Inverse folding.
């Protein structure tokens, strides 16, 4: 790993820890309870930031990287690795979005789950993300795998605007957008607004660190995969299994076979 | 434990566990890569069909091309070729 990457990871890690700690401290002990939600509002400092990362940041990076890989002029292994890394980390955040939302919904709505438009479309998003990750594990050459995954990511990205606008298009239990509403006028004020903003920054830094870590794992994984493939080919070549006919054909064409 | 505490604990705990799993995966892959390639310095910087080869590979006979399927002969062959020289 390059020195620059190591420094970036350390800086992101320190920033993430500090900002998350500050968010927890402010969210749990400093900010006042809400007039209607009372102390339940404290979950708002976690749930929307996690949802922002899952829906917009992670999926946005995955979809954009997939599109850039599919475009021949910008095709690069970097974008494929970035897409799968963002999608996997984003899946974790999507799960957390549903879980924290469910925990908030239990005392608020009286149920752990409702087939509400926002909840249902987010659950669909999670299923699409899991499908993408399952597709990545299907054996195949790297280019075919990248192509399949990229198309899947772009198809799945259609659900993102549906999730965002679901609270406007349908009558839902879920409240409307607090910050990114139609008037672009946040309906949250004071220390709550600053804590919420800090929460967005904190979880964005956490995502960035996890993305970098996952990308490093992807690079190593492909390296090991390539070495294992070479080793398997080498063993098959030495054993001569199933290659006798091909060996003769190659010899006729002027290729040399390694001596046994 | 209240709903709020549970929410914070689950969110932060899950992220921490995932980070730990990523670190563990990285560590295991690094060990595997070192075992496959020898040392960290031998790990190729690019992935792809190429890989380390025997040093001083014998050239193919004139008029014939080397097989491109297996770029690296088995270690035993490298030893055999080095003994022949």
């Amino acid at each position: 790993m390059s020195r620059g990457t190591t420094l970036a990871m350390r800086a992101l890690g320190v920033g993430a820890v500090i900002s998350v700690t500050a968010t927890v401290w402010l969210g749990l002990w400093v900010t006042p309870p809400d007039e209607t939600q009372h102390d339940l509002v404290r979950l708002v400092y976690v749930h929307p930031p996690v949802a922002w990362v899952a829906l917009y940041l992670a999926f946005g990076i995955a979809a954009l990287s997939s599109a850039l890989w599919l475009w021949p002029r910008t095709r690069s292994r970097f974008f494929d690795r970035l897409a799968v890394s963002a999608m996997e980390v984003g899946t974790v955040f999507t799960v957390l979005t549903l879980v924290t939302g469910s925990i908030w919904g239990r005392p608020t709505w009286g149920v752990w789950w409702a087939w509400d438009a926002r909840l249902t479309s987010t659950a669909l998003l999670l299923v699409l993300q899991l499908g993408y990750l399952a597709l990545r594990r299907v054996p195949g050459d790297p280019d075919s795998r990248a192509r399949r995954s990229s198309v899947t990511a772009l198809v799945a990205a259609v659900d993102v605007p549906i999730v965002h606008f679901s609270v406007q298009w349908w009558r839902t239990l879920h409240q409307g957008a607090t910050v990114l509403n139609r008037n672009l006028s946040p309906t949250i004020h004071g220390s709550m607004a600053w804590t919420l903003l800090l929460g967005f920054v904190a979880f964005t830094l956490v995502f960035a660190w996890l993305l970098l870590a996952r990308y490093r794992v992807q690079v190593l994984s492909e390296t090991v995969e390539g070495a294992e493939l070479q080793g398997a080919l080498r063993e098959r070549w030495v054993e001569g299994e199933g290659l006798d006919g091909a060996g003769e054909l190659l010899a006729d064409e002027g290729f040399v076979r390694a001596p046994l | 434990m209240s709903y709020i505490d549970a929410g914070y604990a689950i969110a932060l705990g899950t992220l921490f566990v995932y980070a730990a799993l990523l670190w563990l995966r990285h560590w295991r892959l690094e060990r595997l890569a070192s075992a496959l390639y020898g040392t960290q310095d031998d790990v190729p910087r690019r992935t792809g069909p190429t890989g380390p080869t025997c040093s001083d590979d014998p050239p193919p006979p004139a008029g014939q091309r080397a097989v491109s399927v297996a770029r690296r002969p088995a270690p035993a062959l490298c030893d055999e070729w080095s003994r022949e020289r």
Observations:
- Chain A touches chain B through 54 residues (CB under 8 Å).
- Chain A has one domain: 3-216.
- The longest helix of chain A spans residues 190-239.
